[in-house]
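Translate structure to sequence.
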């Protein structure tokens, strides 16, 4: 995040657009008891499936797949990869004809395991030595993976479902190639997001119990899968996972994944440059912007509070006081690093804890955080509770947590230089490249307040938390109380 200097622009236009102003008051009462729209977000399910934590990973007792793998050392990493490919291919065999005009799915004929720490040879015109990657290449019609570094590292961090995620993404490129869903000159961003979308459609099948070797729960299981997508955006490598520019922001990636999970392969097939551009306009400035961190201190907290005041001015809610003193609060469990007390309309903050969250993500370091935006989003989430309190909405329960995520999304969406939907940016803080991705990482975590109610409880499904955040980000705070009404 960074402060901008210069004129405040177009606040009037913003106010005009947020016409359902008492949204959080009047509108919520009007819609009281109204169920969410069909196909829309819901707190208790994940795109129509029950939301729950549960077993994720290999299914015990499933017989190993019998697929030839070139170069294998016969070890566990390759056994996992082979089973993953078998499940993903079985899925595409089943759905490909329906999704793509009756055509049969042609399996990928060559599966290649290599060791990036060994001398090795070349694959798809790249040396495999030092290539910590997984990739599909159309020219040689193969899927290859690094069994020595990439897959073990991801499996260590996220569990064995990480290998399935990576290989389902690579198979997504094979599907793309076979179905001709994108032109040969399609931008990388489109190719990558479509592959993520195809990954999502496979994982729905797995979540429904349709895969032979793997299971995934819709709660913490999908959190891990989306965590992998978030993580591999910065995995070093030369071809596929080349970083944010190639794969899009993590926010784009999980959005594409969620589309595939919710709507299936036909939705993915419709992804083209126009579709991707419509959803990612708000990120265009990121390409030129300098990454600037806003250290957590009293001055910057005041600036964040001021931006929250401006974004939510229209709700008529009295802005809460911010304090760095711990305050006891009756009837509410204390939350860290920020706690909201409805009785006194006060947010008490722990600067130390916020600063730790604001540390850049340094993998495997003890002081690793999520980044500055993730820290400020925790503060914004407690502010969002004050807005709900003023509107007479409950501050506990699943809807309260998701409304909070939606309101934090709405605040974030108005700090972007070019917000989606022709809205004007608000205030003097701007998001820098990667800020929203920090928020995504935090939203998928177990300990974030961004989607938590006043007691710090959040719904188990990161999927639902992200949907709520995205709704606010894209559409402003209007839908937050209507979609997540009591
Ligand atoms: Zn890819």
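Result:
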């Amino acid at each position: 995040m960074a402060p901008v200097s210069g004129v405040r622009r177009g606040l009037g236009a913003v106010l005009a657009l947020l016409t359902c102003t008492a949204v959080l008051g009047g509108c919520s009462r009007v819609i009281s008891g109204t169920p969410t729209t069909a196909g829309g977000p819901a707190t208790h399910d994940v795109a129509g499936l029950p939301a729950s934590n549960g077993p994720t990973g290999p299914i015990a007792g499933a017989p190993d797949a019998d697929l030839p793998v070139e170069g294998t050392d016969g070890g566990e990493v390759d056994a996992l990869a082979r089973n993953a490919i078998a499940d993903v291919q079985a899925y595409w065999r089943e759905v490909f004809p329906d999704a793509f005009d009756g055509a049969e799915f042609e399996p990928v004929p060559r599966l290649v395991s290599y060791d990036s720490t060994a001398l090795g040879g070349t694959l798809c015109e790249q040396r495999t030595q030092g290539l910590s990657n997984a990739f599909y290449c159309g020219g040689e019609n193969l899927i290859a993976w690094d069994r020595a570094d990439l897959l073990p590292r991801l499996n260590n961090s996220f569990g064995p479902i990480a290998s399935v995620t990576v290989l389902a993404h690579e198979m997504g490129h094979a599907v793309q190639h076979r179905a001709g869903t994108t032109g040969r000159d399609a931008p990388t961003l489109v190719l990558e997001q479509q592959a993520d979308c195809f990954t999502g459609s496979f994982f729905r099948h797995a979540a429904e119990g349709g895969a032979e070797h793997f299971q995934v729960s819709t709660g913490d299981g999908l959190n891990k899968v989306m965590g992998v997508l978030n993580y591999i955006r910065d995995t070093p490598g030369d071809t596929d996972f080349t970083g944010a520019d190639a794969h899009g922001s993590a926010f784009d990636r999980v959005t594409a994944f969620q589309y595939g999970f919710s709507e299936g392969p036909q939705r993915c097939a419709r992804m083209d440059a126009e579709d991707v551009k419509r959803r990612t306009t708000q990120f265009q400035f990121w390409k030129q912007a300098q990454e600037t961190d806003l250290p957590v201190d009293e001055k910057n907290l005041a600036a964040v509070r001021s931006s929250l005041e401006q974004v939510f001015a229209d709700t008529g809610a009295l802005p809460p006081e911010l304090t760095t003193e711990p305050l006891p609060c009756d009837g509410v469990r204390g939350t860290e690093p920020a706690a909201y007390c409805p009785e006194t309309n006060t947010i008490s903050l722990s600067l130390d804890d916020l600063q730790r969250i604001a540390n850049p993500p340094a993998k495997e370091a003890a002081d690793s955080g999520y980044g500055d935006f993730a820290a400020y989003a925790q503060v914004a989430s407690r502010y969002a509770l004050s807005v709900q309190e003023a509107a007479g909405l409950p501050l506990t329960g699943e809807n309260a947590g998701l409304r909070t995520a939606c309101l934090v999304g709405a605040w974030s969406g108005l700090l972007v230089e070019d917000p989606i939907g022709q809205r004007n940016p608000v205030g003097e803080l701007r998001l820098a490249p990667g800020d929203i991705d920090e928020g995504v990482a935090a939203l998928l975590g177990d300990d974030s307040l961004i989607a938590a109610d006043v007691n710090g409880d959040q719904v188990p499904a990161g999927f639902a938390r992200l949907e709520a955040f995205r709704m606010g980000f894209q559409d402003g705070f209007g839908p937050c109380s209507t979609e997540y009404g009591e």
